[in-house]
Amino acid sequence: MRILITGAAGFLGSHLCDRLILEGHDVIGLDNFVTGSKDNIAHLFGSQHFTFYKHDVSNYIFIPAKLDAVLHFASPASPNPASPYAYFNLPIQTMKAGALGTHNTLGVAKANNARFLLASTSEIYGDPTEHPQKETYAGNVDITGPRAVYDEAKRFAESLTLAYHRQHGVDTRIVRIFNTYGPRMDLEDGRALPNLLKQALLGQSLTVYGDGGQTRSFCYVDDLVEGIYRLLMSDEHMPVNIGNPVEMSILQFAQTINRMTDNTTEITYVDARSSRDPQRRRPDITRAQTILGWEPKVDLEEGLNRTIPYFKQKLGLA
Amino acid sequence: MRILITGAAGFLGSHLCDRLILEGHDVIGLDNFVTGSKDNIAHLFGSQHFTFYKHDVSNYIFIPAKLDAVLHFASPASPNPASPYAYFNLPIQTMKAGALGTHNTLGVAKANNARFLLASTSEIYGDPTEHPQKETYAGNVDITGPRAVYDEAKRFAESLTLAYHRQHGVDTRIVRIFNTYGPRMDLEDGRALPNLLKQALLGQSLTVYGDGGQTRSFCYVDDLVEGIYRLLMSDEHMPVNIGNPVEMSILQFAQTINRMTDNTTEITYVDARSSRDPQRRRPDITRAQTILGWEPKVDLEEGLNRTIPYFKQKLGLA
Asked: Which pLDDT tens digit goes with each residue over A70-90?
């Protein structure tokens, strides 16, 4: 197949490029490098199966080739308020990538009679009041809060995708991506894993917000890519959660990281940052298991082992 | 002030045109007549204070005049599955009016340094689990359901409006409009009031879904317009509910209509239509009372008295 992927130079987009090329497909990547990085796709520039265009998906997209599939992964996605690349700090670009970008990429899929896959997110559940989150859960998103620029854009993108499926018969798929980690992730992404792993590798004291009782589930990127690839090859049109359902407290997680990195400093507890930071987030993956025969295979220790060399290199420790 | 209003030929938009002109403003109306009607604004075509352009707000908007305010009211809004003009049946146009239309109109407001007012809706609360609905309630919208094309578009529009306020300093306002009725409403709109009033005036048996215990609150259009005008003239940027908090069961409502129209036929009870139809919807108007000094003045009997002549005329009974 010839496959267009937006956000190709991002963490997830670039891993998808690798996987799609490995499966024998020809990949056309788009990215405007607002949050993506050339480093993530530099190794692909010699491949005859990879073509790249620098382009902002909020603008009209013209691809001079017949496409078989379109994957829309372009969006700022970092929730780190301190990062200039966080969606908080690119609010209008984030909403345009979600609305205009989804509209444009759906148009490309429709014109090519191609299948379409939308990268959605667990953020559409907001600060959930149901655990774990099933795909039928309506979520708890504060429309007026700073996170809404990402959350509401993705909710809109999902509804628009289903509208194109129902109205125009576009062969669409929607993946709701939960917390993912691995090589090529942004160390300044602001999520718990890169923050803590970075501190541990630098021999610093790990910062835990509140009592560390808030929980997270972390999915290794290869597992995520496998799930997305299976969804792309399936006939499922309704949203599917892809993530790791193994839930642990941030405190347990910090202790695991300290152990694996031989970091012996004490943990530092500080005030909880924001009341709108989700307290718990864990996917119910029953649909992925049933429909795609998918579940994660890489446990946290193995995933961290595969991720640490990348972090060391980025930190100048390798 | 020179004021641009999109959806000017709609039920609410046309009443706003009247009010704004009455207040001494110059009004520029846009409408693409997908759901609006020339009949609603025909009386304004002779006015030197009214200019009209037929235009789809999903496309770039150019207004050859300096604007002081922009009101974005354009959208399909009927929830009647049987109507070709319902948002269910115009799903992509509805999402484009909400996302591209809001983006375009915010751009016009920004370029003109004009204040901006977004027509949002109680639909952003979905099928609410909290009663009455405060503006802080996150709602219960099924992203994948057929109503989502309207609900998610309006949620997105609100978040985009706040993003323009925070990022670009645009002087924005957001009104969340609850169930409204009055002259110029679409008789085929699918909501309880026009359905029942039409049946009553035709001497037919009123159709009540389920046991009629589901409740609604109905706001007369003049009250709504007063609230919107006060919001436009205020400095309030966060969403404000405008609606009538007097809640009654559909059964009570049907009985009131029968009494006021001297309709003596028995009520017909039929199976509840759709489990996603909200069971209750009632605004908490504390913010409107506090910030705008607004509350509805027209009670249901008075509002029906003012509405019945319009219905009779449309039904050929006058």
From this structure: 999 999 998 888 888 889 899
Please return the burial class of B295, using the count of CB atoms within 10 Å of its CB with bins 0-12, 13-18 and 19+.
Answer: middle
pLDDT at A275: 40
The residue in chain A having the minimum alpha-carbon distance to the alpha carbon of residue B238 is: A144
Token readout for A42 is 């530099």
Contacts of A142 in chain B (CB under 8 A): 136, 138
Domain assignment of residue B23, given as a range: 2-186+218-245+282-297
How many Cβ atoms from other residues are within 10 Å of residue A33's Cβ? 11
Chain B interface, best mutation among A75, A104, A130, A143, by max B CB count within 10 A: A143
Q: Looking at the domain assignment, is residue B158 inside a domain?
A: yes
Report if residue B314 sits inside a domain.
no
Give the rounded percent of residues in chain B with a pLDDT score beyond 90.
89
pLDDT of residue A277: 62
ipTM of the complex: 0.93
B152: domain CATH number?
3.40.50.720
In a domain, A276, yes or no: no
Chain B CA closest to residue A167: B91
For residue range A199-245, what is the model confidence (pLDDT) as tens digits? 999 999 999 988 899 888 999 999 999 999 999 999 999 999 999 99
CA of A49, closest CA in chain B: separation in Å? 34
What percent of chain A lies above the pLDDT cut of 70? 98
**Closest by Cα among A67, A20, A4 to A226:** A20
Report the DSSP pairing between strands A247-249 and A215-217. antiparallel
Has residue A213 been placed in a domain?
no
Cα–Cα distance between B258 and B267 in angstroms, integer? 9
Residues of chain B in Cβ contact (below 8 Å) with chain A? 91-92, 95-96, 98-100, 103, 124, 126, 136, 138-144, 146, 148-149, 152-153, 155-156, 158-160, 162-164, 166-168, 238-239
pLDDT in tens, B276-299: 567 788 999 999 999 999 999 999
Please indicate whether residue A229 is annotated as part of the active site. Answer: no
* pLDDT for residue B308: 97
* Residue B273, pLDDT score: 63
Q: Is A169 left (phi over 0), alpha (psi -120 to 50) or beta?
A: left
In angstroms, the first-to-last Cα distance of chain B is: 38
On chain B, the residues whose CB falls within 8 A of the CB of A99 are 99-100, 103, 156, 160
Question: Structurally, how many domains does chain B consist of?
Answer: 1
- Nearest-angstrom CA–CA distance, A194 and A83: 13
Query: pLDDT of B4-27, one tens digit each?
Result: 999 999 999 999 999 999 999 999
Mean pLDDT of B160-189: 96
Q: In 3-state terms, what secondary structure has residue B216?
A: strand
